[in-house]
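Quick one, T. Sequence first:
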Amino acid sequence: MTGTNALESLVISGWVRGLSDRDIEAALAEVLGPEAALSRSTVSRICAAIGAEFAAWRARELSEVRLDHLFLDASHFKLHPGAPAEPVLAAWGIDVDGKPVFVGLAPAASESTDAWDDFLADLACRGLGAPLLGISDGAAGLTGAFDRAFPASLRRRCLVHRARNVLAKVSAHDQPQVKADFWAIFDVGDAEPGDQAISVARRQAAAFAATWKARYPSAVACVTNDLASLTVHLRFPAEHWHRIRHSNLIERTFGETRRRTKVIGRLPGETSCLGLVWAVLDRASRGWRGLTMTPKALRLLQDLRRQLQNPAVAEGVINEAVTAAA
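Structure tokens:
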């Protein structure tokens, strides 16, 4: 990291890999000798360096970040001594070139509408444009804030979260079959992205409802009442469907972050904790896989962009095509 010496960079690298202070001290002493042991001043200096880089990162300009997909989620960490765990809000995306981008991170007192409104407003104020698609769980505060921040964007509910909601309303005996039938709804085979794929999913959702409604009406309602947001990913390139239908990547990374921060013995407070959470996520994001952008996928995404962000232009193109065909 810039602004740190080689020893400090090595210590941060150890933290990110899940080592405790004691593990790092032992490893450094073995390689470099007893004088490599960490002092409190060294730890403080490292935390300050991370905090400075995090502060610069969270204030950076975002106008050059153009996203197709924006993933939003939160995870809880103990930011303040003696207080319960509090949410840290996170945003990451896939840009128009198919590359992953770690977009934003901020603390919040709760996952409230106001917290998400403030978080997304900050991203927009720094220049982040509307994505084609927002992916999140179904928390009302988050979905409402997204719709206000990016009214022209599509929004989908994470299928993994919705599957959990469905199975929570089903007896243990039937859960395996209901789970299989739920995921079968979204297996549309070779159907073309768009209306064709969505029509297939709707037929399969109707079959799911016919099979299970009498026994589990509440579970079925979880699917049928929100089918539009559960199938919207089918408007996008088929090779992207499995990556954009859930928010698992950021959830898995948050899990690793919680595991790693637990082994750190000294977290002076909110700033240091946030900085270390950011350091782990920042490094993890460098290994995230993006999406393959074929010429066909790029054309479909461009068409969606016109329809969502320039509807008048898109309507004119469609009318011209209809006139030419006539």
